[in-house]
Amino acid sequence: MNEQNVVIIGGGPAGYVAAIRAAQLGARVALVEKDRLGGTCLNRGCIPTKALVRSVEVLLEAKRANEFGIEIGNVKTNFQKIMARKNNIVSQLVSGVEHLMKSNKISVYIGTGHILSPHLVKVDDEEIATRKIIIATSPS
């Protein structure tokens, strides 16, 4: 059985910031995330949406280029490249969060955390004994 001072359930901004701060204060920390680190905003919400919106903004500017005396010809979109750019941005940011976990010596568990008692969390087949549990999950 693994032993930690703090187990945090939820790998979004609230969870990973809490994990980093606890580690900075000297705690042995485990972070449990059911999907990818970064949470909804980073993986499926704010960040991917902004990346897609930016591609549309560039497309619209290109279509208006003639108004500024710039002739660029027929402007076309490549949906696969737009999605690849979005996915690359998300992957880079997720990698940044993963790096923060490693550099702060935070144990990351990918799976669903189950609280068995006030001092015991189970992730898949592994049990983690802990002094404190922080629940930092999103409602989605």
Automatic annotation (TrEMBL):
KW NAD (keyword) present: yes
GO molecular function: dihydrolipoyl dehydrogenase (NADH) activity; flavin adenine dinucleotide binding
GO biological process: 2-oxoglutarate metabolic process
Pfam families referenced in this protein's UniProt entry, alphabetically: Pyr_redox_2
Gene3D superfamilies named in the record: FAD/NAD(P)-binding domain
InterPro entries, A to Z: Class-I_Pyr_Nuc-Dis_Oxidored, FAD/NAD-bd_sf, FAD/NAD-binding_dom, Pyr_OxRdtase_I_AS
Domain FAD/NAD(P)-binding: 5-137
Keywords, alphabetical: Disulfide bond, FAD, Flavoprotein, NAD, Oxidoreductase, Redox-active center
The keyword NAD is annotated on this UniProt entry: yes
Signal peptide, first to last residue: none
Cofactor or coenzyme needed: FAD
PANTHER family: DIHYDROLIPOYL DEHYDROGENASE, DISULFIDE OXIDOREDUCTASE
Family: Belongs to the class-I pyridine nucleotide-disulfide oxidoreductase family.
Protein's recorded name: FAD/NAD(P)-binding domain-containing protein
Organism: marine sediment metagenome
